[in-house]
User: What shape does this take?
Amino acid sequence: MSDFEPCYFRGTGARKRSIGVDGFAFDDADGSVRLFIAEFGGGEEPETLTQTDAKSHFARLQAFCEEAVSGKLHREIEESNPAAGLAQLLFKERGAVTRFRLYLITDAEMSSRIRDWPESEISNIKAEFHIWDIVRFQRAFESRTGKDELEVDLQELVEGGVPCLGASVDSDEYLAYLCVIPGEALANIYDEYGSRLLEGNVRSFLSTKGRVNKGIRQTILTRPHMFFAFNNGIACTASKVDVVTGPSGLRITKASDLQIVNGGQTTASLAAAKRNDKAALDHVFVQMKLSVVPPERSGQVIPEISRCANSQNRVSDADFFSNHEFHRRIEQISRKLWAPAVGGAQHGTQWFYERARGQYLNEQSGLSLSDRKRFVLQHPRHQVIAKTDLAKYENAWRQLPHLVSQGAQKNFLSFSSYASDAWDKNEVQFNDEYFKRVVAKAILFRRTEQIVSKQRWYQGGYRANIVAYSISKLSRMIEVEAPGRALDFRSIWLRQALTPATETQIAKIAESVFDVIVNPAGGFQNITEWGKKELCWKRVAELEIPLDSTFYKELADHESDLQQKKDSAVDQKIEIGIEQQASVLQLGASYWKQIREFGAREGLLSPDDISILGLACLIPNKVPSEKQSSRLLQMKTRMESEGFPIRTIATGAS
Assistant: This one.
């Protein structure tokens, strides 16, 4: 759950009931609320979680929900505690919440005597219960997808399974089926699994306010028998399916790791119409294209299927940014760049950019004990930067703290839009110097977290908001009060730390920021929601906080700062040219001869293309220039889009 927000609280409610919560996440896709409670033993050997233990933990979390929905709890919790904001939000949104999903997170091992936990209701809202013990976490970690397996038994929803036709696909990469699934079954699947079905989708449910979704709802309510004709259907992927042959043909009975990569809004609209409008879906049928992709190929193939399938509504480049070359470039730089050895250390270290979730642990999984220790020594755990972390650090410095406060996923999409446009305009700006500045911003952000936690005025809540706003305010102050100057990111990189003057300045800023955050403007009662508003940033931006003279003297000259960026961009351009030449040489003369034959046969080559390909066909006696190599790789991509077999090129990134 990328948008999970920590929210620790333990207390006593009505009738002396024990209440508690450790975190939450609102799921915009299906209107559910996920609430977490954790039990950590910390022993070398896992303890056993009994049925009685689990019941006790869930009872605390359930009691929290009940008292929050009643409207009493948020008045009794200290206002500065994030749990007060959560309780108030649950009370305010109680009519919109479709389902509570309660999770018990533990490092214990669940007893085999624990039976399935039946669904129940909390304040007339459906509630389901999930236990994640140490064994389940290990199973998810060891799975090739990095997720807990999602298996849908279609026979429980459609008698005999979903009818299908096997598509004639001559490929080792995947299998394909064309299906017709009843709207009732699709809505029930969505109600059961919610946004877990959309993890491979480029967007979640867009609500019924959009033009397309309004049309879907209207068809469901007024002309359900025409739904199949009017709707383009859905595209799905799975890692495995069970198919049986009966008198009426093929039927799919089970699907593992089912994902809706296109048609999430169609699916959610059906579920919403059934739930909110009490619509009967008996006459609604949906066409479904199902691609079965092995887990080891899913990371590469599913994003491609998603990109090609999404054509009903315009999907921005930001939606696909998780698989953008930007991330591969940053990952590649992080694997080669060494941070300075500081504090008397006799060896340098590297900052590890985690392009894919779990990458840091996965790279250690096959190592011996000694190699694992060497890996951790070279890549300390506190020097891991996830892609959502990078977006947080960048947007905080770009003076967008209200977006950072909206959660990891929404902030990431916001940053994606900016970075995707910046990449298209000038990709060489993302280079070694850029990565050093990302690390400097990571050091700034993380040290600010520590500074805030140590302040006397800090009451234990809303630290994430205070930190993001403090860094944005620092950026703003330098911009407005110190024209011609810039924060010395190079110095932070070299020191791998902030100067005392910088830390003093941040402490002063954070105290003033805290006062704005915990005192919302009129009309805002919930502090968490207040922190997500641009008006909150406007109030912070208007604060009058002087720059300390010592800190001011440490600022870098703006022109020198720009020159560092320009020099690194030039170096990156040279490096790209060398890499392109190396890739062309690696593919070899015979490959380029095949490209030339294919392109000529299909009529896809210009005279200039043929001339450059002729040079490539003479490798190694002739070596194309950097400019010619760039053209050759563009031709490779173009021919592959026209049906020429895809061939990957080995790179330095893992």
User: Anything to note?
Assistant: The radius of gyration is 28 Å. Residues 571-641 form one domain.
